[in-house]
């Protein structure tokens, strides 16, 4: 095995071990949001958190202070009418923070999800200490093992590409289906870990269907 192949295989094994460890512990939550945008004044309009069994810890629409831009609606499909009677962030904060307390936060591009939580808390002058975060996107990049050009780093896959690679059916950017697709992806890193490994990539077997 060449140096590059050894590096890919070691990264793959580390990613599988990480996923296995998560599924054996209950001190974490999978988090996904839908937002009004990516900017520093963006707000959460939907939030879902799952536990280590894939069960719902928290799920709600959130009424933002500002209107949801058309470009955001085009991505996740959540309209201003849909959130008209939803609770604002300060109303959901106590239950949300209680659900996430003492838990690691896992997510696909988890840095964005954590930033949005902090951002919304700051916008409403709420105190919230976010626990440690671990990124499923980074772990899956090591699992899939596609090296970047002229680099030993692994290319990060979009959630859409990662789900297609593992035959996970997922059609919407709503927070619920997205979060459940991420959980299915985490599970697939364990269930496919015994399949044939070729050039740093795990072949996929079977499929997952995520309700929309």
Topology:
Blueprint: H1 3-23, E1 28-35, E2 44-50, E3 56-61, H2 70-76, H3 89-100, E4 104-107, H4 110-123, E5 133-135, H5 136-144, H6 159-165, E6 168-169, H7 175-191, E7 197-198, E8 201-202, E9 208-209
Parallel strand pairs: 1-4, 4-5, 6-9
Antiparallel strand pairs: 1-2, 2-3, 7-8
Describe the structure.
With 212 residues, the chain is an alpha/beta fold. It has a single domain, classed as 2-Layer Sandwich (Nucleotidyltransferase, domain 5). The protein is 41% helix and 17% strand. The chain is built from seven helices and nine strands, in the order H-E-E-E-H-H-E-H-E-H-H-E-H-E-E-E. It has helices at 3-23, 70-76, 89-100, 110-123, 136-144, 159-165, 175-191; strands spanning 28-35, 44-50, 56-61, 104-107, 133-135, 168-169, 197-198, 201-202, 208-209. The protein has a five-stranded mixed β-sheet, with helices on both faces. A two-stranded parallel ribbon has the order 6-9. It has a two-stranded antiparallel ribbon with strand order 7-8. A hairpin with a 5-residue loop joins strand 2 (44-50) and strand 3 (56-61). It is globular. The N and C termini lie far apart (43 Å). Mean pLDDT is 89; it is low at 196-200 and 202-208.
Main attributes?
single chain, 212 residues, alpha/beta, Nucleotidyltransferase, domain 5, five-stranded mixed β-sheet, two-stranded parallel ribbon, 41% helix, 17% strand
